[in-house]
Amino acid sequence: MRTFLRVALCIVLAGQGAASWAQDDALLMRGKYLMEGVVACANCHIARDDKGQPLFDKGLSGGMFFDDAAFKAYAPNITPDPETGIGKWTDAQLAKAIREGIRPDGTLIGPPMPVPFYRNLSDSDLAAIIAYLKAQPAIKHQVKKSSYNIPLPPNYGPPVAHVDLPATTNTLKYGEYLANIGHCMDCHTPRNNKGMLVTARLGAGGQVIKWPAGGEAVTPNLTPDESGLKSWSDAQIARAIRDGVDKSGTHLKRIMAFDWYQNIDDSDMKALITYLRSLKPEPFAYAK
Ligand code: HEC
Ligand code: HEC
Question: How many domains does one find in the chain?
């Protein structure tokens, strides 16, 4: 029915609207694939019950509380509700918030929003994510303001004018892109005592993550070291990412975003694993 109507309307508007509708559809489909897959903004922004289980019907209406020595942060409502969400934000304002961490009023979005990784989002994927956000049902839900007892920097770097999507044929580069927009290394890299990522040991794990209502876990080592994924097969790595079951058959805690990563398709999974296998082997150590 939907297709029929669309075809009929396309004929009526032939030459004008048809092409741009097809483009809008493609953008939304890409947005859905990313948001309900590797990008997984919902892992932080979805409303949850007091056991930490996602409340899918409440969508991205936020509320999750992050209790850290440096901050008490709440994930805001990012549904299109005009009063309590992002309903009044323009596409350009949303783009600046997501890729640069700067709100329309000029204030900086603080951690744990992984803005440094989102600086890598391509223009086209950013547009797809924004199209998806705007297509979600508006949900009224006032979320508390975060407070930081560390000074936030003025910005996360210079404005990001333009980012190309890497070619999918370049498996390694594309895998790195996916790992960035999936912010894998934000959790799987150790942090120093100031809370900064130790990028020299990218992917080595050892970060203690306290997850609201989801308990606590130390992130495992994703590098190709003996203490990491060296002896894991591709299928075992894919199962951990998608199904949340590790090599020994143990279920992973829900901190790991497998509720979303389960939708990562086979070619993207292959790219991600190629990237993980390219990391410098680093031994695992507790960061704190
Ligand atoms: C690791 C958790 C986490 C992830 C993942 C995450 N966010 Fe956030 N986000 C936050 C927190 C916490 C804040 C509030 C920070 C503050 O109060 O300064 C925030 C703030 C925001 C804001 C500002 C909203 C406002 O009203 O001030 C937007 C927009 C946003 N996030 C969008 C996104 C999008 C889109 C994604 C995925 C591409 C995403 N976030 C992924 C935790 C996260
Ligand atoms: C919000 C933090 C977070 C993000 C983001 C995240 N992970 Fe994880 N991941 C974890 C935690 C915590 C565990 C261990 C859970 C446990 O011990 O039950 C884990 C476990 C894993 C494992 C199992 C390894 C083992 O030795 O058991 C793999 C593989 C993995 N993650 C890969 C990824 C990839 C690839 C991405 C990005 C697409 C990613 N993770 C993003 C927190 C995260």
Answer: 2
Asked if 229 contacts 240 with a C-beta cutoff of 8 angstroms, the reply is no
Please report, in tens digits, the pLDDT of each residue of the chain (288 residues total): 344 444 444 444 444 556 677 788 999 999 999 999 999 999 999 998 887 788 999 999 999 999 888 899 999 999 999 999 999 999 999 999 999 999 999 999 999 999 999 999 999 999 999 999 999 999 999 999 999 998 999 999 999 999 999 999 999 999 999 999 999 999 999 998 888 899 999 999 999 998 876 688 999 999 999 999 999 999 999 999 999 999 999 999 989 999 999 999 999 999 999 999 999 999 998 755
Q: What is the CATH number of the domain that holds 221?
A: 1.10.760
Domain range for 243 is 171-278
Residues having CB within 6 Å of any atom of ligand 2: 38, 179, 182-184, 186-188, 209, 217, 219-220, 222, 237, 240-241, 246, 252-253, 255-257, 261, 272
Pocket test for ligand 1, best of 36, 41, 66 (most atoms within 8 A of CB): 41
- Predicted TM-score of the model (pTM): 0.93
Residue 228 maps to a domain: yes
DSSP string, 142-191: --PPPEESSPPPS-SSS-----PPPPTTSHHHHHHHHHHHTTHHHHHS-B
